Amino acid sequence: MNETIPDNAVAARMATSTPQAVALGFETVSMGVGRASMRIPWREDLVEDPVSQALASGVVTTLMDHCSGMAVAAVEEDRFPTATLDLRIDFMRAAAPGAGVVVEAHCYKSTETLAFVRATAWDSDPEDPIATVQAAFVLNGPQSVRPVS
């Protein structure tokens, strides 16, 4: 793994590079070597059930997948994740009513073709997670160019 601190421009692009991330309102919190954190503020149009007022589980899943890809980008600066190969998510509870969600992801291993990530999502307390993820991503080779925008 590359041990240099990633370019913050990469972090900024991860929240604004896909129409889905923009539409959902993803925000980059931080990025370090092999680590990324993103959040999504609560919005009424993203709730699963009007009675519960909790963010939809699909929104949380999408944020976890996107943040996990950002953690890979924070390690493999000369290669870019092209696809989520496997995403196992364990939901432990719904998000609190009216609460946004934060995700922290860690790319703990990469090979020539794959990168492996663990991530956790929570609303107010990292010790009381909403969900956890174990994921694998396919990597482009060194000849691949990162998307500019």
Gyration radius, rounded? 15 Å
Q: Could you give me the name of the CATH homologous superfamily?
A: Hotdog Thioesterase
Tally of DSSP β-strands? 6
What form results from the Cα inertia axes? globular
- Secondary-structure arrangement, i.e. CATH architecture: Roll
What is the beta-strand fraction? Answer: 25-35%
User: Which topology does CATH recognise?
Assistant: Thiol Ester Dehydrase, Chain A
The count of domains is 1
Q: Estimate the mean pLDDT confidence.
A: 85
Main-sheet strand order equals 1-2-4-5-6-3
Q: Bin the helical content.
A: 10-25%
CATH C-level: Alpha Beta
In short:
With 149 residues, this protein is an alpha+beta fold. 21% of the residues lie in helices and 34% in strands. It has helices spanning 8-16, 19-24, 57-73; strands at residues 27-32, 35-40, 81-91, 101-110, 114-122, 131-139.
Structural features, described:
It is a single chain. The protein has three helices and six strands. It has 149 residues and is of the alpha+beta class. β4 (101-110) and β5 (114-122) form a beta hairpin. The longest helix has 17 residues, at 57-73. The chain starts with 7 loop residues before the first helix and ends in a 10-residue tail after the last strand. Helices cover 21% and strands 34% of the residues. The relative contact order is 0.20.
Record keyword descriptors for this entry.
149 residues; alpha+beta; Thiol Ester Dehydrase, Chain A; 6-stranded antiparallel beta sheet; 6 strands; disordered N terminus; disordered C terminus
Topology:
Elements: H1 8-16, H2 19-24, E1 27-32, E2 35-40, H3 57-73, E3 81-91, E4 101-110, E5 114-122, E6 131-139
Helix pairs in contact: 1-3
